[in-house]
Specification:
alpha/beta, 22% strand, Udp-n-acetylmuramoylalanyl-d-glutamate--2,6- Diaminopimelate Ligase, Chain: A, domain 1, 494 residues, 3 domains, nine-stranded mixed β-sheet, Protein-Tyrosine Phosphatase, Chain A, UDP-N-acetylmuramoyl-L-alanine:D-glutamate ligase, Mur_ligase_N
C-alpha cells in the first residue's frame, strides 16, 4: 500500500536506533532476506517514508509492490515483498515472504514478545483515540511511551503500531477498533495487553450488528487478549455496562469500573466552563481533582478511566491527573480554536469547535452538551446577538433506523439552548425537518453546499460546533470557517 488517508504515517519511531535487523525479521516472519540490512523504522507509505525504514508492500487500493522501487530510491533499508517487483535491482535488499500482511503481523507479534513494556489497549464506540492520546500524554512523564500518532486501529494499523515499538519502551498504548463482528479479539490477542479499557458503547457501525448488545460483546472481546493477571477497565455508566462486566466475569479477569456508578473510580462532579472541564472524583487512594483544558463530560469520563488504567499499569495516577491538564484533543475530535475576523476590532472573533472526524448519536450528544455550556458574546458582529450554532453532517453506518436516530436529535437535552442548527446530507435532513422554525438554519444535500454559504452560517460572537461522520465531509465546512478569519490573526486551541 503506497499511501493511506492519514498524514504522518511513520512518526512512531525515533530513527536513532536499529529497530529490525534482517536476521531478526527473517526469524519473526519465516521469510528470507536477499541481503543483510538494518532498519530504524517501519513504513507502509512512500509519501512519508524516511531514510532507514523497512517498507511493507501491503496491497489495498493499490499493490504496494508497485512502489518498492520508489521506496528504495528514497532510502528504505529494505522492503517486505512476496516477489521481486519489476524494475527492482537484483541486489536490492528485500525480505521475501509468503504473505505481506501476515508478515507485518508476525513482526508485531515479535515486537510485543521482546519488550517488557506495560501495554494498554483501548477500544470503544466513542473516544478511543482521545483516550489513547490522554494515556500518551500522562504516561510520557513516567516513562518512555510508544503509541501511534494516527488512529491506527484496524487489521493493518495495530500490527504496524506494534512492529514500530522499540524494545526498550516502558509503556505502549494501542488503539483497537472494528467495523464488523470478530475483528477486535484477534487484534487484542496480537497485542497481549496488560490492561484494557473500554471507553463507551454506542450506535457506531450498528449496520453490522443486530443491536447495541452485539456491539458491547464485540467491544468486550478485547478482554480475550489480556495477559495473565490482566485488568479490564470498564465504563460503569453505560446501559450495556453489565454486558461488559458479565463478559469479564466469564473470562475471570480483574475488573475496575469507572464512572458515576462505580464504587472505586467514582465520578463525583463535572463542571463545564468556557473551554475547560473541572472534575471531582473519588478513587481508591482518596478524593482527586483534575482539570482538562477542553470542555466535555465525555472527556472527563475518559480522563477518569485513563487514571484508573494508569494505576492498573503501575503508574502514578496522581501525577497522571496533574498531567491531564496539558492534554488537548486530536485534530477533528473536539479541538477548540478562535477565528479572528478583524484583528483591529476587539472581540471580532468566534469560537470554532472542530469535531468533524466522526459522529454517532452518543458523540453528538456529548458535543452538543459542550456547545450548550459555552456563553456566546453579544454586541459584536453583524447579528449583534451571539449564538450557539451547530453545523451537523450525516452520521453514517447506523443501520436501518438511521433516519429516526437523526430526527431524534431534535429531542436532545441540549437543543433548547442552541440558537441555530445547520444541516448537511440526506440523513441530517430528518433532523432539519424535525427542528422548530426558530432553530432551523441552512440545509444542503452535501457539505460542499454549506461551504459556499460559510459566511452566512456564522458571525462574530458565535460559538460554532461542526460535527459529522468523516464520510460526510463536513470537515470542509471547518476549513471554510477558518478561511473567514484574518490571515494574520493567530489561531489555536483555547
Amino acid at each position: 500500500m503506497s499511501q493511506d488517508t492519514t498524514p504522518n504515517t511513520n512518526p512512531d519511531t525515533t530513527h536513532d536506533t536499529i529497530l529490525w535487523t534482517s536476521d531478526d525479521a527473517d526469524a519473526a516472519t519465516g521469510g528470507q532476506s536477499t541481503t543483510k540490512w538494518d532498519a530504524t523504522g517501519v513504513s507502509i507509505d512512500t509519501r512519508t517514508i524516511q531514510l532507514g525504514d523497512l517498507f511493507v508492500a501491503l496491497t489495498a487500493e493499490r499493490d504496494g509492490h508497485d512502489f518498492v522501487a520508489s521506496a528504495l530510491a528514497k532510502g528504505a533499508a529494505a522492503a517486505i515483498v512476496t516477489h521481486r517487483p519489476a524494475g527492482v535491482a537484483d541486489d536490492a535488499p528485500l525480505l521475501i515472504v509468503a504473505d505481506v500482511l501476515a508478515a507485518l503481523g508476525a513482526l508485531g507479534q515479535a515486537a510485543r514478545a521482546r519488550t517488557s513494556a506495560k501495554v494498554l489497549a483501548i477500544t470503544g464506540s466513542v473516544g478511543k483515540t482521545s483516550a489513547k492520546e490522554m494515556a500518551r500524554a500522562v504516561l510520557s512523564h513516567q516513562g518512555r511511551v510508544h503509541a501511534a500518532q494516527a488512529s491506527y486501529n484496524n487489521h493493518w494499523g495495530v500490527p504496524l503500531t506494534l512492529a514500530r515499538m522499540p524494545a526498550d519502551c516502558d509503556f505502549a498504548v494501542i488503539e483497537i477498533g472494528m467495523s464488523n463482528p470478530g475483528e477486535i479479539a484477534p487484534l487484542s490477542r496480537l497485542t497481549r495487553p496488560d490492561v484494557v479499557m473500554i471507553t463507551t458503547v454506542g450506535a457506531a457501525h450498528l449496520q453490522a450488528f443486530d443491536d447495541i448488545s452485539g456491539i458491547a460483546r464485540e467491544k468486550a472481546s478485547i478482554i480475550d487478549g489480556l495477559s495473565s493477571g490482566g485488568v479490564a477497565v470498564l465504563n460503569a455508566d453505560i446501559d450495556s455496562s453489565q454486558v461488559l462486566q458479565n463478559y469479564a466475569s466469564k473470562r475471570q479477569v480483574t475488573q475496575v469500573l469507572f464512572g458515576q456508578m462505580s464504587r472505586t473510580w467514582k465520578l463525583e462532579h463535572v463542571a463545564l466552563a468556557q473551554g475547560q472541564t473541572l472534575v471531582q472524583a473519588d478513587t481508591p487512594n482518596g478524593p482527586l481533582m483534575f482539570k482538562l483544558s477542553t470542555a466535555g463530560r465525555h472527556f472527563a469520563m475518559n480522563g477518569l478511566g485513563i487514571l484508573a488504567a494508569c494505576a492498573a499499569l503501575g503508574a502514578d495516577p496522581v501525577l497522571a491527573a496533574i498531567d491531564l491538564g496539558h492534554w488537548v484533543p486530536p485534530a477533528g475530535r473536539g479541538t477548540h480554536e478562535v477565528v479572528t475576523f478583524d484583528p483591529a476590532m476587539e472581540h471580532e472573533t468566534l469560537i470554532l469547535m472542530d469535531d468533524a472526524f466522526n459522529a454517532n448519536p452518543t458523540s453528538v450528544t456529548a458535543a452538543l452538551e459542550v456547545l450548550a455550556a459555552y456563553q456566546p458574546l453579544d454586541n459584536v458582529g453583524r447579528i449583534v446577538k451571539g449564538r450557539r450554532v451547530a453545523i451537523l453532517g450525516d452520521m453514517l453506518e447506523l443501520g436501518p433506523h438511521e433516519n429516526a436516530m437523526h430526527s431524534d436529535l431534535a429531542n436532545d437535552p441540549s437543543m433548547p439552548v442552541l440558537h441555530l442548527i445547520h444541516c448537511a446530507g440526506p440523513r441530517m435532513r430528518h433532523l432539519y425537518d424535525a427542528l422548530p422554525d426558530t432553530q432551523r438554519g441552512q440545509w444542503a444535500e452535501t457539505a460542499d453546499g454549506l461551504v459556499r454559504k460559510a459566511a452566512q452560517l456564522v458571525d462574530a460572537g458565535d460559538i460554532v460546533l461542526v460535527k459529522g461522520s468523516k464520510g460526510s465531509k463536513i470537515s470542509l465546512v471547518v476549513d471554510a470557517i477558518r478561511k473567514l478569519g484574518h490571515p494574520d490573526a493567530p489561531k489555536g486551541s483555547i
